[in-house]
Amino acid sequence: MADGILRKMIDELGGAPRIIATGGLAPLIAKGSEFIKEVDETLTLDGLRLVYERTRADQSSVGTSSL
Question: Facing residues of 31 across strands?
Answer without folding.
Answer: none
